[in-house]
Amino acid sequence: MTSTGAIPQKRTADSVFYELTRSICPECKQLIDGQVHLKDGKVLMRKRCPDHGWFEALMSSDAEGYVNSLKYNKPGTYPVEFQTEVKDGCPYDCGLCPEHKQHTCLALIEVNTGCNLACPTCFANAGPGYNLTMEQVEFMLDQFVRTEGDPEVVQFSGGEPTLHPQLLEMVQMARDKGVRHVMVNTNGLRIVRDREWSERLGQARPMVYLQFDGFEDETYMKLRGEPLADEKLRIVDRLGELDLDTILVATVERGVNEHEVGRLVQFGIEHPAVRGVNFQPVTHTGRHLPFDPTDRVTIPEVIERIGSQTDGLFVKTDFVPVPCCHPGCQSITYAYVEDGEVTPLPRVLNVDDYLDYITNRTWAEPAEEIKHALEGLWSSSSVPGSESLAERFACASCNIDLAITDSDLAKKIFAISVKDFMDAYTFDVKKLMKCCIGIISPDGRTIPFCAYNNVGYREEIREATRLERVKSRLQAVGRSSPTGV
Ligand code: SF4
Ligand code: SF4
Ligand code: SF4
Which of helix, strand or coil describes residue 60? Predict the structure, then answer.
């Protein structure tokens, strides 16, 4: 018998199926398979929820860079102690559980949930909730010190931590417990609105991680709900007066402030208080503006814009993925700045070669020492403005002609980092298992940042902490809760 119809043709897929991971459904948050595809030079996540259908999201706008970045995946270093057991599987056993592949380079303590802004974009969904007590923070710090052994960085955050009446005591407490670097993550408003308090902040000397999204009121109206451009400039000047090392932290959103990234870099280089800029494409968790998950801002795009908006002061090859976490999470560069001349370190030293863990070369001294210094710089625990960072920079550049002779080196090193925190669309368990940024919960667990914000930990812990506070207040006045709390 012969067929009279057309022969069915095979179809070619529209993408390269690159790998399989686990993700979550953006609607119901249940754990589902995530397929990573390479298409038209981009990296996409495609996934299907049995209840909500197919989803697609942009993970990276540079497929080649994404694939090549895997060589920077450094073998992890485990914490001294894990805090939970493996029971339900990742991401439900945080943490850290024994399946986790890396210790915590940087730990956040969210001391409150309230804020003096109500940003339309706020992954922490700031609002009524709790203020931690000194006793709670002490317990959390003790747990972190116990599990880390030699804790590197604690960042006090919120809500808006400067509203907490005991924040400065907490900064001192962290230092007394041996935390090497203490940061305060703030919108900065109290620094200019309460001069007496900012004097005290100056004496406490934390590194300031300052929300600073651009120079236009329109940008702040969209991201922060208020026209803050002038006030933000005054905050940076005040931090200069107080001689506090400052990192500008810019949230970058499509169609809002992408055009300001170059100016942010230029401003940071020129301002005496600023040691670096940290760009964070908007994390679409908590509160956020409406967005198209297939048209998100990702790390390569921020880097490309920095290059085009600074006339090539920094270019793509100046940025190297961070090896301590998953290399797709963050890229950093450092430059030496002297008399307005900017020299990115990767232009004079082949950082790439040293941080390539696939080739796994063994180095003789002093190259091994340089590699070690670079690992310290390309880490979430590196703190721009610190002496330890300056020492690593000096060591890494010891074989090259950077004319680094002065004792004020820490203030001449400028850092740019670009971090892409995951949301429910881009959530990738493979990255999460190597996360090196954790939020310490009041019960002492360390929960990787992107798990905390995406799979229910934030909501659960906020409610439990709020109820605990209600209970202890009622006990203090000798009453019990009518709801049995
Ligand atoms: S993210 Fe890490 S700590 Fe949390 S469940 Fe997964 S492996 Fe364990
Ligand atoms: S993003 Fe920061 S400043 Fe804005 S509401 Fe949230 S906690 Fe407050
Ligand atoms: S916080 Fe998220 S983006 Fe950052 S290292 Fe951890 S998993 Fe990666």
Answer: strand
pLDDT of 444 reads: 94
Rounded Cα gap, residues 114 and 127, in angstroms: 5
Query: How far does residue 95's CA lie from ligand 1's centre (Å)?
Result: 6
> What ranges make up the beta strands (E) of 40-167?
42-49, 53-60, 106-110, 153-157
Distance 91 CA to ligand 1 centre (A): 5
Q: Is the CB of 31 under 6 A from ligand 1?
A: no
pTM for this prediction: 0.94
- Rounded Cα gap, residues 207 and 397, in angstroms: 25
Joined together, the tokens standing for residue 316 give 């793509």
Establish whether residue 437 lines the binding site of ligand 3, counting it when its CB lies within 6 angstroms of any ligand atom: yes
Kind and range of the H or E run holding 278: strand 274-281
CA distance 151 to 104: 8
Q: Which among 345, 216, 218 has a CA at the least distance from the CA of 276?
A: 345
List of domains in the chain: 71-461 (3.20.20.70)
> Model confidence over 57-105: pLDDT tens digits?
999 999 999 999 999 999 999 999 999 999 999 999 998 999 999 999 9
Alpha-carbon gap, residue 22 to 6, rounded angstroms: 40
**Distance from C-alpha of 95 to C-alpha of 26, rounded to nearest angstrom:** 23
Question: For residue 21, what are the β-bridge partners?
Answer: 34
Backbone angles phi, psi at 261, to 5 degrees: -65, -40
Query: Which residues lie across from 153 on neighbouring strands?
Result: 106, 181
Angle at 202 between CA 239 and CA 180, to 5 degrees: 105
